[in-house]
Write a structure and sequence with these properties.
heterodimer; A: 131 residues; mainly beta; OB fold (Dihydrolipoamide Acetyltransferase, E2P); 5-stranded antiparallel beta sheet; 2 helices; B: 424 residues; alpha/beta; Peroxisomal Thiolase, Chain A, domain 1; 15 helices; globular
């Protein structure tokens, strides 16, 4: 299973992962219309241009929604209780989702809590930290 | 001739020439639209069959063949009448069989009849049905087999949870630890936070669907439950508990689709498909502008209603995709049965029960009947067929003549809606 994940990561976007490792979210800004979207998208959603400029945003934002799972997918059995979080970036129009360890009950993470990207783990994807 | 007539009228009334151009353009558009509509063959459901849903001992091919045999018998045809096979399946690899269609066709004794296997996660059945529908409507075939099948229970909960997570946008979701209950739990929390719905409201969906499933001999979980049972069941992914979630199921469902001429010649009871729509949404939940709605459902429903020439008020009952209780609440708003933010209270008040204003999931839905993901969308059509041909017994919706099925893949990244009419 982890072999499959490693393979996918090597294909999708090493640049996105490299940015996440320093707490940033890498995005594409369309050179034709200026719309900004996640780096893994190949064509602009607004004008369908494929010429982009890379833009790095601070991976900081507010929790929009989340869950704490009792049954987790394979590879996450040994990490203890965590939240899977969708958060709205402070300085970008889009949302990002990731893995936030150490969250045990919903009371630990009220909607609107602030989180930041802390790393990209090859086993667990985009890692978040509560701030 | 019409153009000459319009020009004459125009001259007589001394109207500007641009009015004439506008009239001619409108009439041309209407003519072309009517011409193409007339070219579409009516598509009918002539027979239907289903295995029991649940934990089945047979292999995936045998399960598929059992449902196919029942559908063929129900339609009063033999395999030689079938000109193509459409098979939906997601996790055939879990039972060591992919490229399912030729294997099914060979075992039905028609190895030289073309088959096609289609995958669209939990929406595979309805998406496949749409392709079968389109091929009959376009006149390529007179009669086809439309079959959905799944077998996953033998791999266990951890492996099933992992396999299902591959249906997400894996780089952003499954790969960061989101399971499917987890993804729907984020949707539930967002909905509850926005519209002040409660966990008790969600529980009422499960209670109602289990009540219906008790009347369905082929349902996976035939057990009466209460709101307290749901609220006290183990947490799976907060705020969703065990009874908010559908089970992993094995099972197969099949229908025989044909054109109207074929159906009439058979002399048997049949059901007409009067609307069909497909929709899409951003694959990842993070990509949705509004997490409390599913755009693919709205798009597919709009197309299906337009094709059928009806509105949500004309639907007598619906089979919708209730993989989790929150999904049914969002579905019935997106399908137009309730205004946004009101479905939770409507369910609690009983509006979706079998005797309610709009009965939802009389079969028991995914929640009670079960969710063999490749088969689910076809199983919904089997329920409609049984309802409209007098075979739904105690769960019959009285005087129903128009029904809707709605089925989506993953968190609604793909969806299809179909509308059916009882043929008297």
């Amino acid at each position: 299973m982890s072999e499959t994940k490693q393979h996918q990561q090597s294909l999708v976007s090493q640049k996105f992962i490299a940015s996440a490792k320093i707490g940033k979210i890498l995005a594409n800004r369309c050179l034709n219309c200026g719309f900004t979207m996640l780096e893994t998208i190949y064509f602009c959603e607004k004008c369908f241009s494929s010429t982009f400029q890379h833009v790095e945003f601070d991976g900081v934002g507010k929790v929009v929604t989340f869950t704490i799972q009792a049954v987790t997918p394979e590879g996450f059995e040994d990490v203890g209780s965590y939240a899977w979080v969708v958060f709205k970036m402070d300085n970008a129009s889009f949302r990002v989702s990731g893995f936030l360890p150490g969250i045990v009950t919903p009371a630990d993470l009220p909607i609107g809590s602030r989180v930041r990207v802390s790393d990209y783990d090859p086993k667990h994807g985009l890692l978040l930290k509560k701030i | 001739m019409i153009v000459i007539f319009l020009v004459s009228v125009n001259k007589a009334l001394d109207l500007p020439i641009k009015w004439t151009i506008l009239y001619v353009a409108c009439l041309t558009f209407l003519y072309v639209k009517i011409y193409f509509l007339a070219m579409i063959n009516k598509v009918c459901v002539l027979g239907a069959g289903s295995t029991k849903y649940g934990k089945l001992d047979e292999g995936i091919v045998e399960i598929a063949l059992n449902a196919s045999k029942e559908a063929i018998s129900s339609a009063g045809i033999t395999p030689k009448d079938i000109q193509a096979g459409y098979i939906s399946n997601v996790f055939g690899v879990a039972d060591k069989q992919v490229h399912m269609a030729p294997v099914i066709m060979s075992n039905l004794g028609i190895p030289y009849v073309p088959g096609l296997t289609i995958e669209s996660a939990c929406g595979s059945g309805s998406v496949m049905l749409r392709e079968a529908y389109a091929n009959i409507a376009a006149g390529f075939y007179d009669c086809v087999l439309s079959l959905g099948v799944e077998k996953v229970t033998h791999v266990g909960t951890l492996q099933s949870t992992t396999l299902f997570s591959y249906c997400s946008d894996f780089f952003y979701e499954g790969g960061s630890g989101a399971s499917f209950p987890g993804l729907f739990a984020t949707i539930a929390r967002s909905y509850m936070n926005t519209f002040k719905a409660t966990e008790e409201d969600l529980a009422h969906v499960a209670v109602k669907n289990h009540e219906n499933g008790l009347l369905n001999p082929k349902a996976h979980v035939r057990k009466k439950i209460t709101v307290d049972d749901v609220l006290n069941s183990p947490m799976v992914a907060s705020p969703l508990k065990l009874y908010d979630c559908c089970p992993f199921s094995d099972g197969a469902s099949a229908v025989i689709l044909c054109n109207e001429e074929f159906a009439k010649k058979s002399g048997r009871q049949y059901v007409e498909i009067i609307g069909s729509g497909r929709g899409a949404s951003p694959a990842a939940v993070q990509g949705r502008e509004d997490i409390t709605t599913i755009p693919s459902t709205i798009a597919a429903a709009k197309q299906a209603y337009a094709m059928a020439g009806i509105t949500p008020k004309d639907i007598d009952f619906a089979e919708v995709h209730d993989c989790f209780t929150i999904a049914e609440i969002i579905d019935i708003e997106d399908l137009g049965f309730f205004p946004k933010g009101t479905a939770a209270s409507a369910v609690t008040e009983g509006a979706t029960r079998r005797n309610g204003a709009i009965p939802i999931n009389p079969s028991g839905g995914l929640k009670s009947k079960g969710h063999p993901i490749g088969a689910t969308g076809v199983g919904q059509v089997v329920e409609v067929f049984e309802q409209f041909t007098g075979n739904a017994k105690d769960r019959t919706i009285k005087d129903a003549e128009i029904a809707l099925t709605h089925n989506f893949g993953a968190t609604g990244a793909s969806a299809a809606v179909h509308i059916f009419k009882k043929v008297k």
